[in-house]
Each structure stands twice: as structure tokens, then as C-alpha cells.
Amino acid sequence: MRQFCATRSAESIIDWRISLLSGPTMEFTALFLAISIVMLVAWRGPRPLALGLYAAVMIACVATYLHHATDTLKLSF
Amino acid sequence: MSSTRAITLNAIGLYALALLLAAAFAAQFMLHELPCPLCLLQRILFATLAVGPILNIRFGPRPSHYAASLFAAVAGAVVSTRQVLLHIMPGDLGYGSALLGYHYYSWALAGFIAAIVLLAAILLFDRQFEDDATNAVPGAFAISAVWLVVGLTALNAVSTLLECGFGACADNPTVYEMLKRFS
Q: Strand runs (DSSP E) across chain B, as ranges?
């Protein structure tokens, strides 16, 4: 029983790593939602929070760009 | 330039961004051209440009607010330049249809460069930062500009969810993944 649990746990960690390494999913929907929230905080909330969230979204945008910039290009000559 | 005039210019900037996001929507739904991942990232960065003007309208003009928009404009210019370079080989037809001879990512590059120049130009006017406009109440013109941009950005979140579904977006999307799943 103990061995079974250990195996299941290890498989779970492997699945999690595979899904993480295969790249982010829904990143563009999440970015649109995040920037909508930043706009609402900028309009209604405190200024430092809005600027902090804005910085986080910009970092996420750069990370998304770098993720796509390193994709293999399917060129044919 | 007084802070009141600067706030009016910021509201006009928000209307320009709203027009741009609406035009992208029109191309998407009327011409049935689904945006690629880099196209979506350019739209996101156009929406991010709006954070600076919203902060200026709410808290009064400050250099840090313009700097926030400048960062977004530079990032957008980098992304659209990459897409232009991806399709620069002779014989490459580009992604999507052309508008007045240029593809949307070429227009996006021109838009981001124009934003950088305009932001630098408005930063030249020091008097806007001298007035304390922290407690100024924005007018209906500015308020409707803010809600228009927020609404269009939220609609983009919905359309991106419909296009990409719960997985990664396709490099060359042809169908709405969510609609395909439920049809």
C-alpha cells in the first residue's frame, strides 16, 4: 500500500512537470483578463496597487513573447 | 499646457485606443480573420497602453504614468517588429489580409512608434505636472473613454477564450475552438 501511494505521488509530480514544460495554456485569455483588472484597479483602486499589477502584467507579456519567440519556425524553401 | 488640457488629451488617446481595438474586432468578425498569438499579444499591449491615461485621468498627470505607457509601446513595437521580420522574405504573402497595402502587424508597428513619439511629445509640457489634479473630478467625456476601453478589453478576453479554448492558441487559427467543441 505504501509503495502504491509513493508511485501515485511520483506520477502526479511527473504529470505536473510535463504540463508545466509543455508551455502555458490560456495565456492570452489570462493576459486580457489581467489587463482588464489592472484598468479597473487604476480607475477605482489605490495607485500603488495599480502600478504593481501593471508591472506584473508587463513581465507576463514579456515572458509570453519570449516563449513564442523561441518557437521553432516552420520555414520551407 | 494645464493639467485639465492634458487630461482631455489623455481621454482622446483612450478613444484612439478604443477605435483601434474596435477596428481589430471588425476585421476579426467581418473578414473572419482570427488573430494569431503574436497578433493577440499586440492587442494586449495596445490595451496595456491605456493604463497610463486611465491613471492620469484618475490621479492627475504624472511622468510615471506616461512612463508606464512608454514601456507598453516599446514592448508592442518589439513584438510587431518581430512579426514584420517573420514575413519579410520575398514571396511571403504575410499573415491575414492587407489594409491599404500593409498588413495589420505593419500598421501595429506604425501605431506603437506613433505612441512613443506622442508620449515623448506630451512629456515636454512641464506645466501639466505643476497643478495638483489629484482630487479633480473627471468629466463624462473622460469617464466614457475609460469604460469604453475597459469594455473592449474584457470583450477581447471573451473572444480569445472562444478562439483558443482552454488550451494553447493555434499558430495559424482557422476556427473558434470553443464553438467547435460545443457544436
A: 98-99, 102-103
Q: Name the residue range of residue A35's domain.
A: 24-69
Q: Which of B78, B113, B107, B77 is nearest to B95 (CA)?
A: B107
| CA atoms within 13 Å, Cβ hemisphere of A18 | 6
Among residues 16-75 of chain A, which lie with CB inside 8 Å of chain B?
Answer: 23-29, 31-33, 35-36, 38-40, 42-43, 47, 50-51, 54, 57-58, 61-62, 64-65, 68-69, 71, 73-74
Domain count for chain A, please give it. Answer: 1
Q: Is the pLDDT of residue A10 over 70?
A: no
Give the angle subtended at the CA of A65 by the CAs of A64 and A68, to the nearest 5°.
90
> Considering the domain boundaries, does residue A76 fall inside one?
no
Q: Say what the pTM is.
A: 0.84
As a whole number, the mean pLDDT across chain A is 75
Report d(CA B44, CA B38) in Å as an integer: 10
* Chain position carrying cell 471588425: B26
* Cβ neighbours of residue B15 closer than 8 Å, sequence gap 6 or more: B145, B148
Convert the pLDDT of each residue in B158-183 to its tens digit.
999 988 888 778 777 878 877 777 76
Q: Complex ipTM, two decimals? A: 0.89
Instruction: Report pLDDT for A77.
Output: 53
Task: For an interface test with B, give the residue of A43, A44, A67 to mutate (most B CBs within 10 A).
Answer: A43
Is residue A31 a part of any domain in this protein?
Answer: yes
Q: Scanning every residue of chain B, which has its alpha carbon at the shortest distance from the alpha carbon of A53?
A: B51
| Domain-embedded: residue A10 | no
Q: Is residue A40 part of a domain?
A: yes
